[in-house]
């Protein structure tokens, strides 16, 4: 009897997990058409974001991301979507990073990019993109983009399946936080002096 009861509990647990899985994979669903913060006037302006106007024609000297997430456009709350415009000067890189809450669909508008991501088996997938190409970075995996052209910039747009995909920069998360130098030295099988040089290089 106890064995049958245990099997039934296990079956119920598996069914529960399988039904919860879709809801855990994306932003929480809404019970209304949209979500507005308290004391907010809801009109067409609420659903409009003009912050990317500065992206048009811009030529910043360093790699730059122009975001349209829930932080910039509160109307995205509950809509499971956000956007980013990316500008890559000649020879620049979007360093290794992850988006813990969403996959990324990148559309290359101008130039060329070398892109790649590493899966959970440490297999590296790389591709050279040309203008008009699209590439998907799976959710939560470490990835990067690099403009190999030393003369011309690259421009891309990225769509995310979350209003707040989040970004964890690997270099910053590892070397610009409070992880002790001896821990990092042991992790990378090097010495503390090398770790401190890396930290100095990232901060200047």
From TrEMBL:
GO MF annotation terms: manganese ion binding
Taxonomic superkingdom: Eukaryota
Signal peptide: 1-25
Compartments in which it is found: Secreted, Extracellular space, Apoplast
Gene3D superfamilies assigned: Jelly Rolls (2.60.120.10)
GO cellular component, one term: apoplast
Keyword field contains Cell membrane: no
Domain Cupin type-1 intervals: 54-196
Keyword terms, alphabetized: Apoplast, Glycoprotein, Manganese, Metal-binding, Secreted, Signal
Positions annotated to bind Mn(2+): 97, 99, 104, 143
Binding-site positions, oxalate: 94, 99, 104
Listed Pfam families: Cupin_1 (PF00190)
Complex formation: Oligomer (believed to be a pentamer but probably hexamer).
PANTHER family listed in its UniProt record: GERMIN-LIKE PROTEIN SUBFAMILY 3 MEMBER 3
Function: May play a role in plant defense. Probably has no oxalate oxidase activity even if the active site is conserved.
Family label: Belongs to the germin family.
Protein name as it appears in the record: Germin-like protein
Organism expressing this protein natively: Sesamum indicum (Oriental sesame)
UniProt lineage: Eukaryota, Viridiplantae, Streptophyta, Embryophyta, Tracheophyta
